[in-house]
Amino acid sequence: MKFLSSLNMHQLKHIRSYSSATQNFRAILQTQLDDIKAAGTFKTERVITSAQKSQINVDGIPKKVINFCANNYLGLSANEDIKNYSKEMVDKYGHGLSSVRFICGTQNIHKELEAKISQFHQREDAILYAACFDANAGIFEVILTPEDAVFSDELNHASIIDGLRLCKAQKQRYSHRNMHDLEEKLKASDARVKLIVTDGVFSMDGNIAPLPEIVNLAKKYNAITFVDDCHATGFFGKTGRGTEEYYDMMGSVDIINSTLGKALGGAMGGYTCGPKEVIQLLRQKSRPYLFSNSLSPAIVGVGIKVLDMLLAPNDLIGNLQKNTRRFRDGMTKAGFTISGEDHPISPVMLGDAKLAQDISNELLNYGIYVIGFSFPVVPKGKARIRVQISAAHTEEEIDQAINAFVEVGRKFNVIK
Ligand SMILES: Cc1ncc(COP(=O)(O)O)c(C=O)c1O
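That is the input. Now the predicted structure with pyridoxal-5'-phosphate docked in place:
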């Protein structure tokens, strides 16, 4: 099947001819594209022709492949109950709101979801955004001024980095998970408000922020804490409450940002939850909230449904933990090095960029869909295949992946 992503030059000629300024501009951009290609970092997109499930159809590949690279941690992206509920919500509340929240874009379900998020995270209040990228982009400039200081882990997500660029607070970047560096920086600061900012789980390594130490340092130096828990909410910790719960320290972080676009249904949507003054001020001043459309009813309704599922006894988290252990143990026994701890993000460390690329391509021939990551997405010499486990995988699918890794790993002399 062919996919038309843009008009070809012949079609464009009938639309308009380009001025010399436009041609010059296009040439400038083309140079950048050529540079990216020359650096070997040009990204192409594989086209999936089925729903997002553990087994998917990929354009150009004759047989279904097992998907090990979605953030579909709980397997809800195409779950039957979720799909049916989503349809019910469209029937009842429509497809979209055609409005930002404060004009005519707030339905009862938006308020209900915000209350449910607060209940789930045990926080005073919550505010929805179109994505967690927006929640991260929209928070820091609202809550911090030049009198304040922010201390951010150097490997925090791009959206945190962008959000911090927009804010006028004093900025300090501490080495990744390095508590000595963080303490030195906190000690040297006499800012009015000190905010420590970290991802709960870092997505490239599947490693976890040292939250107990961060919270202790916050107490010692009179700071407050912010955690982006996108790769933890809904599935990490005993009942899926995220990084705080993993460390058995619920309620100890001041502000949590997270997403509906991964475990919680996988469509899109993000939020901030925390003290009511923070949420109230965001509703007044946060630009991605004020000036961007309200979340669609299907997404909002599904958000409520998923949180209800998680607030009741369920098998989802247990299945995910079982699958994660099965993959990590099987791969480690086979001689592979898996980065991170206890987390469904299970990066198979290979070192060399070409090796990671070649092995992931070869695995596709075995029906295993995984992606190799190399510089600049991860440090030079630390190329890897990032495997992500889902509650939707069966034990057979996990074993199939391990067996394929073993065969391909031997072929490429990675294991004996
Ligand atoms: C740590 C982290 N923060 C924020 C985001 C952005 O989330 P969203 O997809 O809801 O914009 C992501 C998504 O990749 C993420 O991994």
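The two ends are 40 Å apart (CA to CA).
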